[in-house]
Amino acid sequence: MNEQQKKKTSKFLSYVLRHHPELINLNLDENGWANVDELITKSTNDSPGFTFEELDEIVQTNDKKRFIFNEDKTRIRANQGHSIYINLALIPQQPPKFLYHGTAQSNIESILKKGIEKRNRQHVHLSQDKDTATKVGMRHGKPVILIIDTEKMSADGIEFYLSENDVWLTDFVDVKYISQV
């Protein structure tokens, strides 16, 4: 599988496992796990189609570690970013003093009025470093990096979770915790 095919398949997996399993009539359990054989069979019937070996390669080499297998590789799920309700069984964690949120310049006015909302996702996504936040912000236009005072948020009783792929998650970031880099 060449890089272009891997990228196309990864996007397809993100779409199906995070947002629209019904596209291929895929069954997800309450924790977002799908049967690997079912995923491969139903994907092949639709597109782009892939083998277990190709799926394994995508899971192992995805730079954002978007997907995870269970121990015996019979089930797969997306690590975070769902717009459908999935119980990821996350345990509250103590975040570092500051985290970062990358966004596009066009979103700043709204964020500085309303805060950072999860919108159609289950959580707000925060990064541990400015570089990752910059990459996230660049996907939607000219990037702006926001500093989130997670120490203060945590002291105020707001919970944080750390996903399997090291993305920090929370429900909402109020304006009072946000500053620009």
Automatic annotation (TrEMBL):
GO molecular function, one term: transferase activity
Presence of the UniProt keyword Metal-binding in the record: no
SUPFAM superfamilies on file: ADP-ribosylation
Presence of keyword Isomerase: no
Enzyme Commission code(s) on record: 2.7.1.-
Similarity section: Belongs to the KptA/TPT1 family.
Protein name: Probable RNA 2'-phosphotransferase
Source organism of this protein record: Chryseobacterium edaphi
Organismal lineage: Bacteria, Pseudomonadati, Bacteroidota, Flavobacteriia, Flavobacteriales
Gene: kptA
